[in-house]
Write a structure and sequence with these properties.
This protein is of the alpha+beta class. Helix content is 26%, strand content 20%. It has 8 helices and 10 strands. Strand 9 and strand 10 form a beta hairpin. Helix 5 packs across helix 6. The longest helix is centred in the C-terminal third of the chain and has 25 residues. The protein is elongated and about 60 Å long. The structure holds zinc ion.
Length: 288
């Protein structure tokens, strides 16, 4: 979290709310959040927001004629719009952009980050430099709405790594993370441990269909359920992720899980691993 559907709904909601409104002032209270110094952050002050969009799991806020804020929320960041300005005591604030909204005089776009680690980041770039920025240039093709037709060919160069890791590798395909990969593999009835370079044409086609339907389905859900202000926790319509011990929604077999570091991958043994329960910790090491 947040992954492609969560970032996409955030960008859509912010675009609708902010497009055309001028920025009054900006501030980056997070020590490590702002990764660039030229142009200075103050260059956006007095300029209008011209659009908010998504690239992979990044959010881009276009400002004025030629500047863009490139933002990565990492695992615990949120970009939220408030009608009241932040207290300086709010230690979650990483970036504050005060909006000159005549109807909401205290309106403020706020990048907040939960937890103890400061990993979310912001770069202020000239718009023509966004595509060439390391974070963007290294991304694989977008996972949604139209991933490459030949997914087998896309995944092959990533080698003999398990699908669970390959699909989360943003350099291979952009937008999928720890939550939605479980849903995608379950939907495609593929083992998380299957080698990414060893998919049959049918399996690759099923995987592509699952990616489009799972991410698109999540986004359709958010279109109904998520409105401003965007909540700290989005209502993720998950069916298997972190539901180990519960019955598979398709076949009622008990869902199983492998734990690795701070995350867990969940799967249905009957649908995905030929009935095998893979609890060996050595297997989990492969997932990195
Ligand atoms: Zn099942």
């Amino acid at each position: 979290m947040p992954e492609l559907p969560e970032v996409e709904i955030t960008a859509r909601r912010l675009d609708a709310a902010l497009r055309g409104l001028p920025i009054e002032s900006s501030l980056a209270p997070g020590i490590n959040a702002l990764k660039t110094f030229d142009p200075p952050l103050s260059a956006i002050d007095g300029q209008a927001v011209t659009g908010v969009r998504r690239i992979g799991k990044h959010i881009v806020v276009d400002v004025g004629d030629g500047l863009s804020l490139l933002i990565h929320l990492m695992s615990a960041g949120r970009l939220q719009l408030y009608d009241k300005r932040a207290s300086m005591k709010d230690r979650t604030s990483r970036l504050l952009v005060r909006i000159a909204d005549p109807e909401q005089p205290e309106r403020e776009l706020r990048l907040r980050e939960f937890g103890t680690k400061q990993r979310a980041w912001v770069k202020l770039l000239r718009r023509e430099d966004v595509a060439a920025d390391d974070a963007v240039a290294s991304l694989g093709p977008e996972a949604w709405p139209d991933p490459p037709a030949d997914l087998g060919a896309l995944l092959k160069p990533a080698g003999a790594r398990p699908l669970h890791g390959v699909l989360r590798d943003q350099r291979v395909i952009a937008g999928i993370g720890r939550s939605w990969v479980d849903e995608i593999l379950w939907t495609a009835r593929l083992s998380p441990f299957q080698r990414g370079n060893d998919l049959s044409a049918e399996e690759a086609a099923a995987l592509r269909t699952a990616i489009v339907s799972v991410l698109g389905g999540a986004l359709a859900h958010y279109e109904e359920a998520v409105h401003l202000p965007i909540p700290d926790k989005l209502p993720l319509p998950l069916r298997v992720h972190r539901k180990q011990g519960e019955p598979c929604p398709r076949c009622a077999t008990t869902l199983e899980a492998v734990h690795y570091e701070d995350y867990v991958m969940t799967y249905c043994p009957a649908d995905q691993t030929g009935g095998k329960v893979l609890k060996d910790r050595r297997l989990s090491r492969l997932l990195k």
